[in-house]
Structure formats: C-alpha cells, structure tokens
C-alpha cells in the first residue's frame, strides 16, 4: 500500500453507514408522506390509462365521399378495394383487412362508412417527447456554434467583433426567453414569412422560429462560458505556441481550445439541461412539445396528477441522460 492510498477505519465505516441509513430513511419517509397526502384527497388514480398516451390502437373508419352504388369489391393482397359509382362518376376506397360494412349492389350515401381497420398511432406524450428531443438537439447544436464564435469574438482585439459580441450577449441575457420567443414568432416570423410569400417561396414552420429563439438564447450563455474557459488558460500557453511559429488561430485551435473544453464541460452541461427545460415555453407558440402535449392530455382525460408526474419523469430522464453523457465526456477528456 502506498502513502497516497487511504484506509477506512471501522469508526469511519460506521459513520458512513449511519448516514447512508439516514438517507434511506429520509427517502422512504418522504415517499410515505407523499403517499399518505394523496390518500387524503378525493382522487381516483388511473395509472392504467397512461400507456395510451404513448401508443394506442385506433379504429379508423373509411367513409364514402360520393353517393352511388357499390359496383365491385375486389381483394388486393390483404386489402379490400371498393368501387362506388354514381352520377357518371366513380371512386375507389382501400380498406386494409376484410372488415367491410358493405357488399356489392348496396346503395351508399355520402358520409356512410364502407369499412374500418385498426391502426397503431403515436400518443400525445410520445409525440411531444420526440418534438422536445428534436428541438433541444438542434438548438444545442446551433447554440454551440453560435456561442463558440461569439465567445471568440468577445475576446477579439477587433473593436467591431468585440462590441458586436458584447451587444448580442447583453441584449439576449438581459431579456426573458419567453419575450424573445414571442418576438421571433409574432414579429420576426411574420415579417420573414411575408417576404418569402411575396417572392413566391415556401413558408418557414413555427417550429424553426422556436428553435432559432432557443439557439440564440443558449448561444449568448455559451459565449460567456467559452470566454471564461479560454481566459482561464494561462497566457503563457499562447505565447509559447506563437514562439514555435504557430499562427494565433492555429494556436487557439490546437492548444487553447482543447484545454478550455475540459474546463467548460460542466457549465455547458448545466446550460443545456436548462435549455431542455426551457423548451417547454415553446408551447406558447402552438408547438406541441412535451409540456403542451401534457396540458392537452390533461384537458381531455382529467388526470392531472398522473400525467404531470409522468411529464416530470420524462424531463428527468432527458436531463439525467445528458448529464451522464457529459460525465462520460469528462472522463474521456481527462484520460486523453
């Protein structure tokens, strides 16, 4: 055993065990207290209904769009093809399976059901979760790029770059994210789409205005994290690299940024975890992310307790996964 290795005495072991037991008792006590509190409310828990908000089986009805007679019913593989003709016009309808409600020669009115089939569909919460993941990943990617370049501009000796970076950072960090989302959607989004419409081009969906607001918001904070990380590296590192003949840009990429990256990983993780939670504000501009999907599910099901608890757990899984990934990156960079 070396001098650097520490031994755990029986007294220290007993002390650690005692506090571990205290933690377990507190955790069990908190859960028991919460359970007791829920039993005091006049509420019926319906946990068994939650799976349908991820995937559910829906019966889809195929309805006739014209009035006429069923002229033929043929099989095409596992599907049934129904042809309805009337008033000099005819249409065909494909019904998966063989659950038909009509036969040849039947007279069909517009809106009548000719058949039905069962289809698995994505539930509200799963749809909201996927949108939240998509929005968060894209916003994180663009936030890193924007923050990296802004952070470098922030420490630049070029007055235009430096003052532009400072203006952007102070403007974004000094205003609420919800206000920025509203400006992007109702002001900038309307102006941009009107200009695109006048030029005969496609319209940008509201999802991308939400992503833009999150990415620009995150970029301002990432820029300050990058600036602090770069300035934490001793100036002698840059001077040594320049003395070896490296350009300032090459020294920044090869020497300074790799060292700064190790130091800024923890604050970056905290910022991106906050970004995932901040994505819940996009529900204000009709983007059906996880929080908005939960609100809609609560409105239709009247199950606020179960759905909001589930929503919180889903956010926790996302943020905890990101935290574990960053810890993995920290270990890899520490070993390098």
TrEMBL record:
One GO term describing the cellular component: ATP-binding cassette (ABC) transporter complex
Main localization of the protein described in the UniProt heading: membrane
Alphabetical GO biological process terms: amino acid transport
Segments forming domain ABC transmembrane type-1: 129-326
Transmembrane segments: 21-38, 129-153, 165-187, 207-226, 307-329
Similarity comment text for this entry: Belongs to the binding-protein-dependent transport system permease family. HisMQ subfamily.
Biological role: Part of the binding-protein-dependent transport system for glutamine; probably responsible for the translocation of the substrate across the membrane.
Name of the featured protein: Putative glutamine transport system permease protein GlnP
């Amino acid at each position: 055993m070396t001098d650097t290795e520490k031994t755990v005495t029986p007294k220290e072991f007993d002390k650690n065990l005692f506090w571990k037991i205290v933690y377990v008792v507190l955790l069990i006590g908190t859960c028991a207290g919460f359970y007791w509190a829920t039993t005091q409310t006049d509420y019926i828990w319906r946990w068994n209904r939650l799976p349908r908000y991820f995937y559910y089986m829906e019966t889809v009805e195929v309805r006739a769009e014209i009035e006429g007679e069923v002229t033929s019913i043929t099989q095409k593989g596992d599907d049934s093809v129904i042809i309805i003709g009337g008033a000099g016009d005819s249409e065909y309808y494909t019904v998966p399976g063989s659950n038909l409600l009509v036969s040849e020669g039947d007279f069909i009115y517009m809106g009548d059901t000719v058949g039905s089939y069962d289809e698995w569909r994505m539930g509200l919460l799963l749809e909201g979760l996927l949108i939240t993941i998509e929005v968060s990943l894209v916003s994180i990617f663009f936030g890193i790029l924007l923050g990296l370049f802004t952070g470098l501009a922030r420490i630049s000796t070029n007055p235009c770059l430096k003052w532009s970076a400072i203006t952007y950072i102070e403007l974004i960090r000094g205003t609420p994210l919800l206000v920025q989302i509203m400006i992007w959607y109702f002001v900038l989004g309307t102006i941009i789409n009107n200009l695109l419409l006048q030029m005969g081009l496609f319209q940008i969906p509201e999802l991308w205005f939400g992503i833009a607001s999150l990415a620009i918001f995150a970029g301002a904070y990432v820029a300050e994290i990058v600036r602090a990380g770069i300035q934490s590296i001793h100036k002698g590192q840059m001077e040594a690299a320049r003395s070896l003949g490296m350009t300032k840009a090459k020294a920044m990429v090869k020497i300074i940024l790799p060292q700064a990256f190790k130091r800024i990983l923890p604050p970056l993780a905290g910022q991106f975890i906050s970004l995932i939670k901040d994505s819940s504000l996009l529900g204000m501009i009709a983007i059906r992310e996880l929080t908005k999907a939960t609100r809609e599910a609560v409105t239709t099901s009247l199950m606020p307790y179960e759905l909001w608890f589930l929503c919180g757990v889903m956010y926790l899984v996302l943020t905890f996964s990101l935290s574990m990934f960053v810890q993995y990156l920290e270990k890899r960079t520490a070993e390098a």
